[in-house]
Design goal:
Blueprint lengths: L1 H9 L5 E2 L10 E2 L10 H4 L15 E10 L4 E9 L7 E9 L5 E8 L4 E3 L5 E4 L2 E4 L6 E5 L3 E9 L10 E4 L6 E19 L6 E14 L3 H4 L2 E7 L4 E9 L9 E8 L2 E6 L2 E10 L7 E12 L1 E17 H4 L2 H7 L6 E15 L2 E15 L3
Antiparallel strand pairs: 1-19, 2-12, 3-4, 3-14, 4-5, 5-6, 7-8, 8-9, 9-10, 10-11, 11-13, 12-13, 13-14, 15-16, 15-23, 16-17, 17-18, 19-20, 20-21, 21-22, 22-23
Length: 371
């Protein structure tokens, strides 16, 4: 902890400031206050809304990031998309890592008739995969050829969204990106049955769950995307910075929220961001990633934080991993590369009662949609 606090001030030296906004043709309405609670309506599929049906660039996803004990690892994502031939296509992507070194990576696709959801409460089904329940106590069930699993969650921190939870692109209210943190941090216990094994495996740990939907293409949504999350039961930090394409100017959409002792102790939708230690991508000209990110501003208190990447764990060229149909379409508009990092953070929140310091480890993601 002490080491993370020590480099907070050092990270503020020799870093470049994100340039101020300039004149632009289209307006960007960023996340706006007031901070509203997450509702069932927020997290149910948006596919039946007029702006989503038959919209080629509609996409929506529910992501489940696991931090499991005893050497297990897992990830799951439910996806809806109109991209490519046909509309209303669903998919479930799952990863499972066993402590003995065996890994499974499964992907199951569904036509429009292969998935469904309840119109009241929250109950989403993709074939034999489902997620349902109250938003602070979800049940996730997965089934594929390699394993089936059931996970039961109990939120440590309440569901949260950045203000009203929406960024609007241009004058039309039908062009947007929405996001909710359904489970910023949840405790999870589960049972996994691996194909060919007689006895089930029991796992436990933590989980992060979010839901997002976009009615515009990736190339219209962002040029750069910064995300950081530290998933811990005592202190958790989430920060996102979306730099829009030039047509919207240089004003970014941002949010930051810091949880501690079961509640949000700081939240902000408007803060300054600085980048430092920018390192070129040796594999692609014109691409580079900052290894230091600093945020400072006000919200529910005065806030500053520094994120320092310690190790790049993965580099993903999206066009190389996407299917042929998606690659054909997206390559005409965007050339995205995502960089994954292990990272450390240090944060300070100052208020009338004094200054509190926080720190820890997390995961940092930097995405370049177009250089």
């Amino acid at each position: 902890m002490k080491r993370t606090i020590q480099w907070l001030s050092a990270a503020m030296v020799a870093i470049s400031v994100v340039p101020p906004a300039s004149g632009f043709a289209d307006s960007l309405i960023s996340f706006q206050e007031p901070f509203e609670p997450v509702t069932f309506e927020d997290v149910r599929p948006h596919y039946d809304r007029p702006e989503c049906r038959s919209n080629e660039f509609y996409s929506e996803w529910w992501s489940f990031v696991f931090v499991l004990e005893d050497g297990y690892g897992a990830y799951a994502q439910f996806v809806l998309s109109n991209l490519g031939p046909g509309d209303g296509k669903g998919a479930v992507r799952t990863d499972l890592d066993l402590p003995e070194g065996v890994s499974f990576h499964e992907s199951d696709d569904f036509s429009e008739g292969g998935w469904s959801y309840a119109r009241d409460g929250f109950d989403l089904r993709f074939g034999e995969n489902s997620v349902s329940g109250p938003l602070d106590g979800l049940v996730l069930r997965l089934k594929n050829k390699s394993f089936d699993a059931e996970y039961r969650l109990k939120n440590v921190f309440p569901p949260w969204k950045p203000g009203r939870g929406r960024v609007q692109y241009g004058e039309s209210a039908t062009r947007y990106y929405e996001v909710q943190l359904i489970a910023p941090v949840a405790r999870v216990e589960g049972t996994i049955r691996v194909a060919g094994e007689d006895e089930p495996r029991r796992v436990k740990g933590l989980m992060y769950v979010d839901h997002a939907v976009s009615t515009i293409g990736m190339h219209e949504q962002a040029k750069r995307w910064v995300r950081f999350r530290a998933v811990h039961p005592d202190t958790a930090l989430f920060l996102t910075h979306i730099q829009p394409p030039d047509q919207y100017g240089s004003q970014a959409a941002r949010y930051a929220v810091l949880f501690h002792n079961g509640r949000a102790v700081f939240q902000s939708l408007d803060f300054d961001l600085k980048f430092g230690d920018v390192r070129p991508d040796p594999q692609r000209t014109g691409y580079a990633s900052p290894w230091v990110v600093e945020a400072s501003g006000t919200g529910s208190g005065r806030f500053r934080a520094a994120i320092k990447a310690t190790k790049m764990t993965r580099r993903e060229d999206y066009l190389e991993t996407a299917g042929a149909a998606k690659r054909f379409i997206l390559s005409k508009f965007a050339k995205p590369i995502m960089y994954y990092f292990d990272a450390m953070f240090a944060a300070e929140v100052a208020g009338d009662a004094g200054t509190n310091k926080y720190g820890g480890k997390g995961r940092y993601y930097f995405t370049i949609v177009n250089p």
